[in-house]
Amino acid sequence: MPPSENSYTKAPLRGSSDRLENLGELRGTPPLRNYLCLTMFTCFCPAWPVNIVALVFSVLSQNSYNEEDYEGSKRLGKKALHLGIASLVISLVIIAVYTVYFVTLTTVRAHQGGILRSSLNIPRLSWENLDR
Hints:
Blueprint: H1 16-27, H2 36-42, H3 48-66, H4 70-112, H5 117-120, H6 127-131
Helix pairs in contact: 2-3, 2-4, 3-4
């Protein structure tokens, strides 16, 4: 059936040409790299002063990006990344030192009788004690 003059035809979407022009502008913007997930993860690590500063730099990077200051955003994002990595390394060192210290402390006390059964007055379990 041939189309008539009264038949309904779809009008082009409004703003579709604007979207194509904006696509060209978007290609010129660099991607956002504020490392917010990394810095939020490091807030659970025991190196608190460093990871709080990393989180602040990450949020500042986001704000710079929203204000279209891409160079400032990139610079602040790199600082957030470096501080986040430093926070992870410091946290791993703290955890390792803490673990080594308390494992050796527990081992030394165990050999000296500090935390043995006799010092805690815990009777020795044997089959004879279970029959009673």
